Each structure stands twice: as structure tokens, then as C-alpha cells.
């Protein structure tokens, strides 16, 4: 049976705002993320339908807090919560938040292509 752990997952993102380790298992990406500061990444989702993340996520908040904002409501998850983030959300990240999240790899890849293009455009601009 495939498995991974935070210590086995390669460090893929190491930025001032986030540390991320990602592994693909059976069509799903397992993410071990540590958010270092409060971040509203909403501008990074511009270009996706409704300018919102369209990838579903299932996760566990290890520490800290995350808010998923939808067009008509918000959902707040804190340490110890298991959650489902439906398509159409915008995350709001808080400092010292650690998440373990599972996302369909194809949907995540499509979303991250747009996010990466927006990051590149912001750096170039």
C-alpha cells in the first residue's frame, strides 16, 4: 500500500510565507503545508471560474487555523479539525498553521497552473 510522511516528502516549496511538501499517491496529492504568516492568496486564483479555487481538498488542521471563503459563507477550521473544502473556495491562511491535505492530482495540477502563472506575472510586473 502506498504511503508517505512529512519526513519522507520532498521539500517542494520553501518561501517566506509557506513551506510545502507534496507527494502523489494513487491519483491524489498529499500536501504537508506549514503557513508562516497570514496570507490571503485570492489574487492568485484570478482566471479560474469565479476567480476561486476549483479543486476539492480533504484535510486535517494539525495546528493553527484556516478559513475557506465561499460566495455565500465562510468555514473556519482549527487544530484537530478534519475538513472538506468544496470547489469554489478562497483560502485565508494564518501564521503557524500546519495542514495535511489531500487533493485530486489532476484538479490540483490545473489549479496550480493558473496560480503559478499569476505568481510569475506578479513577479514580472
TrEMBL record:
Q: Which domain of life is it from?
A: Bacteria
Name of this protein = Cupin domain-containing protein
Where is the organism placed in the taxonomic lineage, from the top? Bacteria, Bacillati, Actinomycetota, Actinomycetes, Pseudonocardiales
Amino acid at each position: 500500500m502506498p504511503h508517505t510522511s512529512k519526513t519522507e516528502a520532498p521539500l517542494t516549496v520553501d518561501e517566506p510565507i509557506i513551506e510545502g511538501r507534496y507527494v502523489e499517491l494513487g491519483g491524489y496529492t498529499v500536501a504537508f503545508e506549514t503557513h508562516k504568516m497570514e496570507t490571503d492568496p485570492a489574487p492568485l486564483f484570478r482566471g479560474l471560474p469565479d476567480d476561486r479555487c476549483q479543486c476539492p481538498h480533504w484535510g486535517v488542521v494539525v495546528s493553527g487555523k484556516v478559513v475557506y471563503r465561499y460566495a455565500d459563507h465562510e468555514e473556519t477550521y482549527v487544530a484537530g479539525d478534519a475538513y472538506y473544502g468544496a470547489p469554489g473556495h478562497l483560502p485565508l491562511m494564518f501564521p503557524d498553521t500546519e495542514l495535511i491535505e489531500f487533493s485530486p492530482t489532476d484538479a490540483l495540477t490545473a489549479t496550480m497552473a493558473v496560480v503559478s502563472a499569476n505568481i510569475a506575472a506578479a513577479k514580472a510586473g
